[in-house]
Amino acid sequence: MKKHIKGVSLLILAIGFCLLLQTHVYAQHAPFVEEFDIAEVNTPVANCGDFIVIADGEGTAKLTTYFNRQGDPIRLLFQGRYNGTLSNSVTGASIADAPSVANIFVDLAAGTQTNIGAFFTVTVPGEGVVFFEAGRIVFAGAGEPVFIAGPHLPPDESTAILCSALR
Q1: Using 50, 70 and 90 to split pLDDT, how confident is the model at 80?
Q2: Are 98 and 121 within 8 A, CB to CB?
Q3: Bridging pattern class, strands 112-124 and 128-140
Q4: Are residues 144 and 152 in contact, defined by beta-carbon separation less than 8 angstroms?
Q5: Which H/E stretch holds residue 18?
Q6: Which letter, b or e, does each residue of 95-111 get, where b requires 16 or more Cβ atoms within 10 Å of its Cβ?
Q7: pTM of the model
Q8: Taking the domains of the chain in order of start, what are their residue ranges?
């Protein structure tokens, strides 16, 4: 009986050691998180012909990198929130772009990127929302999206809406 208890104790000790070792390996490859502030100051974002659309605003962002067991990065998650204004470079007229919320998932192994959020929420006082771009867009490598859900316009149409709202 004493020999059996000693064997069980050694087994428990061995399992505990393995769990401790596994925890150490996991800790080495835990996600790496970076947090930072976003600031746009007098940044040109679109050309309306007779004026430039200028962005000013600030926000916060977090970038998380996930690793496989070998320690190689396999996935990225960008989470950002931004509040700002867009203004006419000639007249100074401005409109709010707030809040803009982005969640961007990048699968480094598959080469895909999925953007989810409300990327533009542009409002004009007395008129309400004049430009809203939100939902989900999936890219498989460079080029055109392979999946789109939600209101998303081509860049030239987006620019025309912003220019019209700032005239």
Answers
A1: very high
A2: yes
A3: antiparallel
A4: no
A5: helix 2-28
A6: bbbbebbbebebeeeee
A7: 0.74
A8: 1-29, 31-166
